[in-house]
Amino acid sequence: MIRASTRAVGRTEGLVSRSMSSGPAQDLVVIGGGPGGYVAAIRAAQLGMKTTCVEKRGTLGGTCLNVGCIPSKAVLHSSHLYEEATHSFKSHGINLPGGATIDLQQMMRKKDQSVFNLTRGVEGLFKMNRISYAKEVSTLPTVPIDDQTIVSSTGVLELSDVPRRMIVIGGGYIGLEMGSVWSRLGTEVTVVEFLDRIVPAMDREIGAQLMRILKKQRLNFKLSTKVVGATKTPVGLRLTVEPSAGGVQEIVEADVVLVSIGRRPYTAGLGLENVGVQVDRRGQVSIDDHFRTSAQGVYAVGDVVRGPMLAHKAEDEGLVAVEIMAGMPGHINYNAIPVVVYTNPEVAMAKTYDSGGDYALGMVKILSDKATDKVLGMHVIGPGAGEMIAEGVLAIETGTTTKEIAKTVHAHPTLSEAFREAAMSAHGKPTNYYKM
Which amino acid positions bind FAD, per UniProt (predicted)? Predict the structure, then answer.
């Protein structure tokens, strides 16, 4: 065991512990090499701390880089290209003799190469900063994962064939993104969601519009529905579902079932209870506003603490926690952390509010304070929403008003013009907006 003046534990995305012992071999030990952990290690090294990172995988980058955000976005991009080739190229005068075909094995190799390149990049950052490096998902009891026919968000990225039918349990962003991938590749996809809406944290108006769009893309939905059993058959799987509130049961069949009901923090087996760190029944660590846990000198960041399991949230927490340990001021505005759903079109939001209203094919929705006119929240649905949401995050962080956005010239023709139109609409004076 390494004695350290500062230890960081971090999904194990970041538990950071500080014990002021004398003569340590290292100033900082980071347990967990995900976005929160490896960024914390780099910042600590930049601040002059001797740092070691301990990671249970053979590679750095955590869930996001190895089996989450990065590989899923690689496959999302490939499936989008296939969709374009089969449905859009011809209208642009681009003809493919014989039509586009799928080589799923090559698609997966491309995904794996992307992950390999990026994990090696993180290792390169560790070497450059002289950081030494020592080399679980939620499940349903009624639907046990075997990663063959009943798969997790990790297993669904390793399928060797395009299934004919897929049931996605969970209508959150992971389920919708992965459902979109396989739908584009030709799979008949049905999303089963316990609640009465998809992506519950999303603005209700935006969520309703997204579901309308996804239905046009051949995704099917069963809302307010729960899965009560699963049986393997010679030709696939048979799921028993019923209304969430109880009622008549129904049988639905599929070749593959994706269980995407969320992830759990990876804190089991770390011995946190032995050092006095309080962990709840989900494995989540309790912290104060400075990321300090219940144990003296132990800090936690990332997926092991409260809030959404987002890589960019973990990164910011890792940076701030280390700066606080170094005696620097640190603060995170949790009201201005963007969330992106990488469907087609993308959906992005900064701060979550819910309100009613009409919808169009794509939109920018701004919520502002009636008294001060300051932007409180922003939601975007449309191409490039993940890039566009940065304007909303900046507006929230800086206290920008809708009048100020309305007076800001946006280039034409661009999608960002929608921000100005939305801001002008807040004062009843849009120039290029009409109600459908």
Answer: 73, 303, 309-312
